[in-house]
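Hi U.,

Before I forget, here's the chain from the pilot set. I'm dumping it here mostly so it's searchable later in email.
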Amino acid sequence: MTTSPSVFSFAHIALTAAITAVIALLVLLVQRSRFKILSLVDCLLVAVVVGLSVIVWRPAGNTGALNNDPIPGVSPNDVCQCGHDLMRRKEHNYGKQTGSTPVHSPASASGG
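Structure:
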């Protein structure tokens, strides 16, 4: 891989993966103490998977075109992605019932 300033080194990506795994582990441990659902082994395995996923997927997007953002500290792709995700969720949920009252069809309401 080239050492262009716009491309992250493997050491940088590995450090990001380690930090992400530690944060995931801490969040899972807090949730574990609160909800008593996950075992300690489950928390560790999920944290390892999170770290490995960063190691695997981050190099795939490690190109200058994606790393050079016109606004320092804010990636326009990340900002636009939030709006896109919200619109897709709205489209997906359009016409679906919201709330807690069940919908009864005429056949089930009449008992037949």
